[in-house]
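Hi L.,

As promised, NUDIX hydrolase:
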Amino acid sequence: MDTSFSHKRVAPLHPVTGIGSVSPQQVDLTSRALVSDANGCVLLVRESGAAGCAWRLPGGRVHAGESCTKAVVRCLHDELGVLIWPVSVLLLSEGPADARGNNPVSVVYCARLMAGALPVARAGEITAARWFSTIRLPHNIAGEAIRALASDQAAPLTAW
């Protein structure tokens, strides 16, 4: 009995006209980390070009062929000079498509700080990096960071 089969890729039809092909939406995948220090403070950054210069969780784009875990470790090391250990996935965040049709998707990890001091931003996308007490957070925090901080799974971070 022949158990082999083949897949024929068929281009999707335009939803209105029913002809031609529609290019699939692209995913803009980022990987971020909720990092806490020994005092229970959390690391937040400001990125150049970020809307409203909001404080957000550190991280960045996932490169082709790279896992989300490797991406967040690479980004924090390259941009801030710290070494982290992603312990678990805390949040999967999805936003509305941008003008080009790209859908932003972000994987947020709970992470332990393994090495590195108070980060000093290097040349690149980070314009500021700072530890904040969870009872004295800045007023302009990105929604994704607020959701991560409010998560029940974020509570054990202060026990590390």
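The chain has one domain: 27-153.

Thanks again for sending the construct details.

K.
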